[in-house]
Amino acid sequence: MTATGLVKTSYPKEDITFLLKDVSEVFTESTLEEREKAVQTGSHYAERLPMEYQPSEEYTKLYHETVLKTKEQLAYLVGLVTRRIFMNAGTEDIVLVSLARAGSPIGILIHRYAKQMMKMEWPHYSVSILRDKGIDEKAMDSIRAAHPTSRIQFVDGWTGKGAIQKELTKAVNQLNKEKNMNLYDDMAVLADPGACAVLFGTREDFLIPSACLNATVSGLVSRTILNKLYIGEDDFHGAKFYGELLAEDLSNDFVDQITECFEATRDKVEADAVSTPVTAKRTWQGMKEVEEIGHQLYSETDYHLIKPGVGETTRVLLRRSPWKVLVNSLENPDVHHILMLAKEKNVPVEVVPDLFYRAIGLIHSGKET
Question: Residue ranges of the Cysteine protease StiP N-terminal domain (predicted)?
Answer without folding.
Answer: 10-258
